[in-house]
Amino acid sequence: MSAKALIVDDSRAVRMILTRHLRQLDYEVAEAGDGLEALAILATGEPFELALLDWNMPRMNGLELLERLRSSPRYDAMRIIMVTTVTVAEQIATALAAGANEYVMKPFTREILLGKLQIAGVPTGETP
Description:
Helix content: 25-40%
Strand content: 15-25%
Number of strands: 5
Structural class: alpha/beta
């Protein structure tokens, strides 16, 4: 049984890139276009070990979703990584303080993503 990852980004292209990388690491992947779609997917009760969240999205942004997830003990074990163009140090600190396990800045390479997954404690089976 493979681990499950949830990719939340309003860019279909970014979701496709992340999905491809995670499937190569044997993840089963679900996608959402914003935080509200992600909450609907999570409401099904399916367990996800990993979530990759964009910061800037309509309806519910990544930080709001992160705060919502971290407010529920149900998601304590989920590794959450922000994947975003937001590069301001204060905002990165805000996301980490809110419970993000790691932070990936767009654009990123496969090697950067693998390294950040490993730093966050996500098993990849590879060395970056």
